[in-house]
Amino acid sequence: xxxxxxxxxxxxxxxxxxxxxxxxxxxxxxxxxxxxxxxxxxxxxxxxxxxxxxxxxxxxxxxxxxxxxxxxxxxxxxxxxxxxxxxxxxxxxxxxxxxxxxxxxxxxxxxxxxxxxxxxxxxxxxxxxxxxxxxxxxxxxxxxxxxxxxxxxxxxxxxxxxxxxxxxxxxxxxxxx
Length: 177
Ligand SMILES: [Zn+2]
Hints:
Layout: H1 26-41, E1 46-48, E2 58-61, E3 73-84, E4 87-93, E5 96-105, E6 108-114, E7 120-126, H2 127-140, H3 151-176
Bound molecules: zinc ion.
């Protein structure tokens, strides 16, 4: 099962609103399995389908400690029904290269999603788990954690990223000469 390429900011697919999944078939199971493999290899604690170039409402999460990465939680068509409290913690993203910043999120959320068989489940989440779910559901809405930052911080990140992309391009041009 192949590891997929992780799409990086500012690729426009990261800004697309993901469409709901309507068919719970083998293809979906295979996608979730590829996404899990891609997330573990990165390594990361969550991955949304937009991040591998597919704007559909599929997310995988595993926040268990590194040694025992085996508590995979696939969420299909996830929705945050309610949120309360607030927590500020540092976040990063596999699609936002070399950057981390503190983001304010709900401390406690209520979530509705489907499992791989299409059965609807509702559950509550707190703390770090709640944060990761909010981050991934944002992806499905075309939103990134940098959108939660002040415009100054966001501008600084954009500049840094632009410079990085120019450097990558220059390195590529050198190789081709
Ligand atoms: Zn992310």
